[in-house]
Design brief:
alpha+beta, Metal Binding Protein, Guanine Nucleotide Exchange Factor, Chain A, 3 helices
């Protein structure tokens, strides 16, 4: 078995992320919208704070947005940045609002190996809020499933 040098593996992984039109988040990412911890706690409900700022997860099938089928956009609950078009929403059967594509430049991603799993965490590009996770088991045309916490999103009819 041929071993690839670590640098090559990292470059290949980064190339794959960029090919999907995603940008990796890093600890050094500067966000246009920032608040102190106390300000975030005042701006968000305790459940939203847990998800957006502490990478929590809401219970499956608990979000009213799961059954939101009107035309519009799903925006970040932390900073109101439009993240997903309603035209890319679909029923994944997982219990969380799911989308097969994010709006261009709306999200950042990073590796998440918590809970002994390898996943891709999705964040808002503008405020860095945790939104959910990205999986590669979605429908055409992208094959992606952005599995989002409903409390991380607000719906704007349009």
């Amino acid at each position: 078995m041929t071993r690839l040098p670590r640098r090559r593996v990292l470059l290949l992984g980064t190339g794959s992320i960029l090919a999907l039109g995603l940008r990796p988040a890093s600890a050094k990412t500067h966000y246009a919208v920032t608040h102190s911890d106390a300000q975030w706690r005042r701006l968000l409900t305790p459940a939203q704070y847990n998800i957006l700022r502490e990478q929590g997860t809401e219970p499956p099938f608990s979000s009213p947005l799961l059954n939101e089928h009107r035309t519009g956009t799903f925006d970040c609950a932390g900073c109101a940045l439009p993240l997903f078009s309603s035209t890319t929403k679909y029923d994944s059967g997982t219990g969380w609002p799911s989308f097969y594509e994010a709006l261009p430049g709306a999200v950042l991603t990073r590796a998440d190996d918590s809970y002994g799993m390898e996943r891709t965490e999705v964040h808002c590009r503008r405020c860095g809020s945790h939104l959910g996770h990205l999986f590669h088991d979605g429908p055409p045309p992208t094959g992606l499933r952005y599995c989002m916490n409903g409390l991380a999103l607000n719906f704007t009819p349009g």
